[in-house]
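#structure-requests
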Amino acid sequence: MNRKSTQSEKADLFKKLHYSKQMLVLPNIWDVTGAALLEETGYQAVATASAAIARANGFQDGEKIPFEQALNVITQIVNAVEVPVTADIESGYATDLQELKINVRKILATGVAGINIEDSDAKTNELLPVDLQVERIRLIRKVAEKAGVRLFINARTDVFLKPGSLTNDEKLKVAIERGCAYADAGADGIYPIFVQDEAAIAALVNEFVVPVNILITKGTPELEKLQKLGVARVSFGPNLQKAMLLAMKTSLKSMKEKFSHSLITDVLV
């Protein structure tokens, strides 16, 4: 019987995938079925989407789902597959550093190989001070090291997500400053969510010494183009779930309005 990989071995593999010639594509899922399907179809890692997990369990995004409930879903996903799993933990469900330390230990106990941690305050929806986020990333790294887990920390910056009064060039400058600070603090990757401009993406890839993760949404350059720009990793956030729900809605409307089941049964094998 083949020996199962340890948590740190999965984390090492997950990190290695960011340095492959082939860009790492992570269609974020929200349950065991999705995780198993990704593994079955040859994806080398699984990523969760916090918004999708929340929606699937009757909650809004933004740390509205109880943390323990989210942990339970993540644990089920990790146990369902052999490939590495990275979990979106939003801002860490923590009001201070002590609570973050406790929550990181709980996250590590699920068996994940990596996490996404964002630099927005869940209560105010404003960007956290960069010095505080640096301290938070250092704490996460320290807790993981103490636990003997080589956790992949994907540090998300929400600069491009916030409307604010900054110009695009100013947002790029702030994103670079934050990303560099996060990498220096121990982040393994930088996730400048919602950046879409090709020149800005190229600049971010050039500035950071760690891999860059780009969100795939409407208006994002195609995968082949992103790979040429040097992007190491792409993820879909809640967009895969949204697309599936829209397809389901189309089938339901067809069955109700046309009194036909073909949109459902024609795809069955």
